[in-house]
Every structure is written in structure tokens, then in C-alpha cells.
Amino acid sequence: ISPDVNLLYLSFAKLDLSYDDISSLIATPTLFKSLIGLEYIGINEYFNDALQLRKARPDIIMLLSLGGENYQPISLDAALNSTEKIANLVDELGFDGIDVDYEPNGSFDALNDINKADFYVKYVTKLREYMCEDKL
């Protein structure tokens, strides 16, 4: 990695991700994809590389990106109920925080819908309950 790089986004995780044990997820890439997102081939290698990068370059800010165009929550309640799991995942992976890339219906324009905008505010507010302010 170039010494000019100072920020790395791991993308995209589901807004409504769910898991019980990180070690079993990393050992089972298909389970990881279905519960967390992050559609990488060789997820074990990816995380090993990320952890090695963390050791070699502790100055790089590593963020877990949530959502994106492809990951719409099954339900808004499911996403709101996943916020503690997201905070736990960030801590377990040793990341510095999260980036919320909420694109309802695959577009930022959908945030003009009052229900979608209201959900986004509730979601970020609830994430803040479980994460330090500097991680969000």
C-alpha cells in the first residue's frame, strides 16, 4: 500500500447485519456474505491482509462502510435492531469506525422521502448509542 494512503474503507456491509460469533463467520465465507455482506472471494485472506495492514500501518484509518446501492435492509426495524451488532463488529475487527452509505432504492434521491429520511436519522442516532462519537 502506498505511503500516501491514509484511509481504507471496507465495503459494503449490510445495514441489518446479523451474527453471533466472528470466528465462525470468518471460517465460513458463504455464511459471512449472507449475514454480513462484504462480498469478497477469499474473505479469510482479506481480513488477514486487513489485520496485517493494521499492524504495519497503524496510522491508516480503517472504516466499515454500511449499505451502498446493493444492501437495502429487509426492514427498517431489522436495521435499527442491528446497530449494537455493527458496533461489536467494528470493535472485533479493530476498525476505527463506520461510514453509513444509505442509498434507499439505490439512490440518494430517495432520501427526499420523509419516511426514508426519518429512518436515516433514527439509524444514525441509534448507532451513536453504541459507538463513540469519533467512530461514526
Automatic annotation (TrEMBL):
Pfam families: Glyco_hydro_18. PROSITE patterns: GH18_2. One of its GO terms (biological process) is carbohydrate metabolic process. Residues 1-136 form the GH18 domain. SUPFAM superfamilies: (Trans)glycosidases (SSF51445). InterPro entries: GH (IPR017853), Glyco_hydro18_cat (IPR001223). This is Chitinase 1.
